[in-house]
Every structure is written in structure tokens, then in C-alpha cells.
């Protein structure tokens, strides 16, 4: 849909009106036949039709193009009233800058920022509303540190709130202790299995060393016996030599 023509100051050229909604063009597109439309209007039209609503020539979405520059400039220079005129805004500005103004207009109806509040209020009156809004939050004046809504003032009980908080903290602490306990037990089990494996490996290494030592001692005894045998043979040879 386009801009309501009644908002504009002065004469508006016929060529700047949407051929479908007959309001002033908003986000305009132009067909090859040079008829102009609001983007939303022509897209909605082409869902059910395949021709221009003015001259019935065949058109397709892919054939739509931006408005000619000189027409776009004429459109942007048009002067119109703010949409919040009915609430008291007297601003008149160009179509090119109207969106920027209306985003910041003090007369715009905006929602209250407090959660749960459904009031729509003029931007210029928002601060005053927030000061008295029943959904506004503030810190408990009794010092418990809780943030409460004004509507809950009569129901707020510091002792009960703190007791609830304490129970939650206790439950959380118990959960954390249990988690830490399970984690430590898991680590200890892992370390215990690792130590058992290391012990088994060391025991096997010790047995292998004992076996090697036993073989070495046997070899040493064999060498010593061979050496005694050799010495006896030398002594016998020496005796025989002396006898000769």
C-alpha cells in the first residue's frame, strides 16, 4: 500500500500515484509499459494476474524496474504530514526524510518497556509512564537485594524470598559437591587402573630380569668350572714337563 494522498501538501502529479491502490507510490517499481506501482501492490497483483492492471499488457516480476530517476526525485521532494498528526505532531517534511522523522517522532505510539505491561504510550510521555507503571521493577527497600515489581510490593516477603534463595543455593551446592565427588572417584579409579597396569608391567620386567640374572649366574658358574678345568690341565702339563 502507498502513502495516503490526504497526508500530502499541495498538488501530487498523477504519474506519482500507484496504478493499483491510487495512493502515492511507496517503494515504487515500474513496468515496461511505464505504469508505476507500489512494490507490495504489484507483487500482490501478479500472484493472481499476468498483465498490467492499467493497459492489460503482459508483464512479469522479472521485467519490473526501479522508477526513472527524475520521477524518483519528484517523488522524494513531495511534502507530507507526519502520520502522528492526529496525536498532535505538526511536522511537515519531504517524503525522502519522512521515515527518519517518524522513527524518532515524539508523538509516536510505542510500547512500554516494562515486561508484562501492554500499554502503548507516546514517546514523549514514556518517562512519565515508566515512573508510575505498575510493572516497573526496583530493588527491595528493606535491603534483601531482590528486584521486585510494584504490583508485587504487598506480596513480597524478604525472609521467605531469602529462605527460598538459601534452599536453592543449598541444593545447587549439594549437586556440585556430588558432581565433584563423582569426578574425583572417576579420576581415582582411572589412576588405580593405571597403577595396577604399571605394577603388572614392572612385575613382568622384574621376572624377566630375574630370569636373565639366573642365566648369567649359570654362565658364570660354567666359566668358572671351565677355568678350573683349564688350570688343572696346565698344572698337569707342568708336572709332566718336570718329570721329563
TrEMBL record:
Residue ranges of domain TRAF-type in the record: 101-144
Zinc finger (TRAF-type): 101-144
Stretches assigned to the RING-type domain: 18-56
GO biological process per UniProt: regulation of canonical NF-kappaB signal transduction
Highest rank taxon of the organism: Eukaryota
One matching Pfam family: zf-C3HC4_2
Molecular function terms, GO-annotated: zinc ion binding
Keyword Transit peptide recorded: no
UniProt entry keywords in alphabetical sequence: Coiled coil, Metal-binding, Zinc, Zinc-finger
Coiled coil: 192-243
Classification via SMART domains: RING
PANTHER family according to UniProt: RECEPTOR-ASSOCIATED FACTOR, PUTATIVE-RELATED, TNF RECEPTOR ASSOCIATED FACTOR
Name of the featured protein: E3 ubiquitin-protein ligase NRDP1
Taxonomic classification: Eukaryota, Metazoa, Chordata, Craniata, Vertebrata
Amino acid at each position: 500500500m502507498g502513502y495516503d494522498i490526504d497526508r500530502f501538501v499541495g498538488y501530487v502529479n498523477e504519474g506519482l500515484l500507484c496504478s493499483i491502490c491510487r495512493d502515492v507510490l511507496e517503494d515504487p517499481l515500474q513496468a515496461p509499459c511505464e505504469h508505476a506501482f507500489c512494490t507490495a501492490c504489484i507483487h500482490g497483483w501478479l500472484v493472481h494476474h499476468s498483465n498490467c492492471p492499467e493497459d492489460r499488457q503482459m508483464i512479469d516480476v522479472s521485467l519490473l524496474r526501479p522508477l526513472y530517476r527524475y520521477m524518483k526525485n519528484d517523488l522524494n521532494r513531495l511534502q507530507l504530514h507526519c502520520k502522528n498528526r492526529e496525536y498532535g505532531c505538526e511536522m511537515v517534511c519531504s517524503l525522502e526524510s519522512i521515515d527518519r522523522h517518524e522513527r524518532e517522532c515524539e508523538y509516536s505510539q510505542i510500547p512500554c518497556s516494562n515486561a508484562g505491561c501492554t500499554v502503548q504510550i507516546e514517546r514523549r510521555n514514556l518517562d512519565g509512564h515508566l515512573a508510575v507503571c505498575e510493572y516497573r521493577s526496583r530493588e527491595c527497600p528493606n535491603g534483601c537485594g531482590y528486584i521486585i515489581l510494584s504490583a508485587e510490593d504487598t506480596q513480597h516477603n524478604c525472609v521467605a524470598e531469602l529462605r527460598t534463595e538459601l534452599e536453592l543455593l543449598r541444593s545447587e551446592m549439594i549437586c556440585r559437591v556430588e558432581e565433584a565427588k563423582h569426578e574425583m572417584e572417576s579420576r581415582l579409579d582411572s589412576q588405580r587402573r593405571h597403577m595396577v597396569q604399571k605394577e603388572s608391567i614392572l612385575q613382568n620386567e622384574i621376572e624377566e630380569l630375574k630370569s636373565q640374572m639366573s642365566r648369567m649366574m649359570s654362565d658364570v658358574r660354567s666359566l668358572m668350572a671351565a677355568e678350573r678345568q683349564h688350570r688343572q690341565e696346565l698344572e698337569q702339563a707342568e708336572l709332566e714337563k718336570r718329570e721329563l
